[in-house]
Write a structure and sequence with these properties.
- This protein is α+β, with helices and mostly antiparallel strands.
- It folds into two domains: about 5-135 and about 155-165 and about 265-275 and about 285-310, Clavaminate synthase-like (Double-stranded beta-helix, 4-Layer Sandwich); about 185-255, no CATH class.
- It has helices spanning about 10-25, 35-45, 50-60, 95-105, 190-195, 240-255; strands at about 5-10, 70, 110-115, 125, 145, 160-165, 175-180, 200, 220, 230, 235-240, 260, 270, 275-280, 295-300, 315.
- A hairpin with a 6-residue loop joins β9 (about 220) and β10.
- α5 packs across α6 (about 240-255).
- The longest helix is centred in the first third of the chain and has 15 residues, at about 10-25.
- The radius of gyration is 19 Å and the shape is globular.
- The relative contact order is 0.20.
- It binds 2-oxoglutaric acid and fe (ii) ion.
- 2-oxoglutaric acid (AKG) binds next to β14 and β15.
Length: about 325
């Protein structure tokens, strides 16, 4: 198992990736969600520096004890103010969109959800005026630890977060906590409860909201010593007292292994959404066009598996 959580491109690799990226940004119609552009992106992803491709193949095979990989020194160029409109997405084939697209495609296939950020494959994670306290990526108060789309039957296998711009004070921390480093510290009876369908996760309002119709699910599944995890500490609730208690014990165990990364432009965090949660520390936006800006992608490993949820065999899940 490779537990090295950081991969830094050398300057030569940065130049090589820049050349591939520049070519890809010129491919018509220069729109991320267009099938022709996505096809070109898949091809270009095979031309990323070979050392990076090897590391990504290892990460796909085994995400390590930290369940995440930070790729640094990617050649991101930004020539626009940070957007601040609600639900904003990146439709243009910018250098950043090309980079996160290519790296994501070395792991699997890009997906999005029709009810979230208008189904765009590359989404902006930016603070939005008036949404400071929201438990969404438009907020700037602390964002609780979660796996992505915990409520959904087809959750992404990976989440990619590429930093285009840091926050002014360089304090906004992406937080990551992997169940692989916490599971041993949980008492046996707590693990048993977490492995039973005694939890519900509310869907966000854009997906119909609430937990009334939400099916009960387990928080830990798979091998008891190396489980997958399905929890969002804002949206998941225990259905009985032992289940509620077990969630609190799990939260403490994950807090003890939480790592915080202040991303810099050109840093891409890849999180294995089956074993690791993510969240964000508080920061103060200024809404001056220079605020923190990440691009986000979702990736799944088996495109075919979700075919019934995708009309016209596209990338957007209904
Ligand atoms: O802002 C961050 O660092 C993470 C936000 C987040 O959880 C997301 O966009 O899925
Ligand atoms: Fe998230």
């Amino acid at each position: 198992m490779n537990n090295d959580t950081t991969f830094v491109l050398t300057d030569d690799e940065n130049r090589q990736a820049r050349a591939t990226t520049e070519q890809l940004t010129q491919v018509e119609p220069r729109l991320v969600d267009a099938p022709d552009w996505l096809h070109a992106c898949r091809g270009s992803s095979a031309e990323l520096p070979s050392r990076l491709r090897r590391r990504l193949a290892e990460f796909r095979n085994d995400p390590g004890d930290h369940g995440s990989l930070l790729v640094r020194n990617l050649p991101v160029v930004v020539d626009r103010p940070t957007p601040a409109d609600p639900g904003s997405v990146e439709r243009d084939a910018t250098t950043g969109a090309a980079l996160i697209g290519m790296v994501s495609m070395q792991l699997g296939d890009l997906i999005a959800y029709r009810n979230e950020k208008s189904g765009a494959l590359v989404q902006n994670v930016v603070p939005v005026p008036g949404q400071e306290a929201q438990q969404s990526n438009a907020g700037s108060t602390r964002l609780e630890m979660h796996i992505e789309n915990a409520f959904h039957p087809h959750r992404p296998d990976y989440v990619g977060l590429l930093c285009v711009r840091s926050d002014h004070e360089r304090v906004a921390g992406l937080q990551i906590a992997c169940v692989r480093r916490a599971v041993d510290t949980l008492p046996g009876d707590v693990r048993t409860v977490l492995g039973e369908p005694r939890f519900v996760t509310d869907a966000p309002p854009s997906f119909g909201g609430g937990s009334a119709a939400a099916p009960r699910h387990a928080v830990l599944t798979g091998h008891p010593d190396d489980p997958d995890i399905r929890v969002d500490f804002h949206a998941t609730h225990g259905c009985d007292v032992p289940a509620k208690d077990a969630l609190e014990i799990l939260r403490d165990a994950l807090t003890a292994v939480t790592e915080t990364l202040v991303l810099e432009p050109g840093d891409l965090a890849l999180v294995d959404n089956r074993v690791a949660l993510h969240g964000r520390t508080l920061f103060t936006p200024r809404y001056d066009g220079e605020d923190r800006w990440l691009y986000r992608t979702f990736v799944h490993l088996d495109h075919r598996r979700s075919r019934a949820f995708r009309s016209r065999d596209g990338h957007v899940l209904d």
